[in-house]
Amino acid sequence: MTTPPAEDPAAPPVRLLIVDDDPLVRAGLTFMLGGAEDLAIVGEGADGSEVPDLVDRLRPDVVLMDIRMPTVDGLSATETLRARPGAPEIIVLTTFHADEHVLRAIRAGAAGFVLKDTPPAQIVDAVRRVASGDPVLSPAVTRRLMDHAAGTGPGNGWGDRADRTDRARQRIAALGEREREVATAVGRGRSNAEIAGELYLSVATVKTQVSRILARFGLNNRVQIALLVHDAGLLDDGGDGTP
Fold first, then answer.
1. Which of 21, 117, 119, 221 could form a disulfide with 69 if both were Cys (CB 3.0 to 4.6 A apart)?
2. Threshold 0.85, pTM exceeds
């Protein structure tokens, strides 16, 4: 039996803020996640309107954010937070696999989402991953969300697909060949280590390339890179963005 690697005892715990309008959900999450030694639940909120003040006072590393709240919903709170310098990472809590509000939250800068019925150990892992800079969407779920986002017609919230494709291809054209390869691999859900192995790069070089892509396009996280390369057609079988 393989023993999982121990957490670094010298590393400070990940500071977590839980925001949900249901007190039972908050209590349940606090109980389930409070046992993880490398997590510190620094506070709770009941509505998105409370989030800016809570973040200023408590300085969380990660916010676990319900998407549906009565006064200010999680989407608006996410947009507000991610527009600020030094914003914490945000994981959206939802009951749906492809809720259009989740898509909007990801485009606003959320690092991903977890379902409310996700096992506690997986939520803990999601918080750890987001705190370390990785999104919490599996490749399969990422593709499902991107396919949903790419749909045309009333209610998809993202305008004409052809327009999005043209804009995305114009942006991708600004990338160098290696940056383009890294961006495509991110879009396929690869981790930094997997990208390094596939492209014969060091993990540090991959991290640098990802950071450059984020900075070049003013993006917040890897999921947004994935959405961009999806819109540009780079995830098609040919991988070159051509129709």
1. 21
2. no
